[in-house]
Design goal:
binds magnesium ion; Rossmann fold; single chain; binds adenosine-5'-triphosphate; alpha/beta
Length: about 200
């Protein structure tokens, strides 16, 4: 039996913000492993504007390969269905033996969680860890978490992670503009992006 963390995201591309957040949560909550789950067809994003599943999956594998506690799941990228977090959590619960499950998100995701499918059920189904991201340590966030705890009995933990003001959007824009992304993503991910001509 183990304590596992789930880190979902579009990962277009995965960057050090995602990796630092996951590792900090793993260490803080004493988790045995983190399962990264690249999103299949993200409900919130326009399908045409998201890089092919295969590329995002490979970049996630490359980025996590040196951490023995990090694994990658292909359940969302290989699915034909829209990948709602509630289904993913239920599937991962069936596939894994675990004692406690922690779903890891950036604080920005908590602020919009009420737009997620079956969010009330989702909030009751596992622990949530919200990592603060630069600009998200607001009073609104603290109030939101308080409300979700009271209304849905949500087990939400707030974790201050080292400020890494990195986003996939900025990385895509930098590549398109011919600017450096070195030290924002792992070397292998940087190489993979150039080799496959992504974000040009
Ligand atoms: P995009 O700019 O395309 O939205 P992103 O950088 O936000 O990409 P996602 O794949 O959307 O990356 O994020 C997956 C999860 O990681 C989300 O819960 C998000 O809040 C969190 N996250 C992303 N970047 C950071 C960061 N720098 N620090 C902490 N959490 C982050
Ligand atoms: Mg995002």
């Amino acid at each position: 039996m183990s304590r596992i963390g789930i880190m979902g995201g579009t990962f277009d591309p995965i960057h050090y913000g995602h990796l630092v957040l996951s590792e900090q949560v793993r260490s803080e909550f004493d988790l045995d492993k983190i399962i990264f789950v690249p999103a299949g067809i993200p409900p919130h994003k326009n399908k045409e504007s998201v890089t092919e599943n295969m590329h995002r999956y490979f970049m996630t594998v490359l980025a996590t390969i040196h951490n023995p506690n990090f694994t990658v799941s292909d359940i969302e990228v290989k699915s034909e269905e829209v990948s709602y977090t509630i289904y993913t959590i239920e599937t991962l619960k069936r596939m894994n033996e675990y004692e406690e499950m922690y779903f890891i998100v950036g604080a920005d995701a908590i602020l919009e969680i009420e737009t997620w499918k079956d969010y009330d059920k989702l909030l009751g189904s596992c622990h949530f860890v919200a990592g603060t991201r630069p600009g998200n340590e607001s009073q609104a966030l603290v109030e939101k978490i308080e409300m979700l705890r009271n209304s849905f009995n949500a087990k939400i933990h707030l974790l201050k992670v080292p400020a890494l003001d990195i986003s996939s959007t900025d990385i895509r824009n930098s590549v398109a503009a011919g600017k450096s992304i070195k030290y924002l993503v792992p070397d292998a991910v940087e190489q993979y992006i150039y080799k496959n001509g992504l974000y040009k």
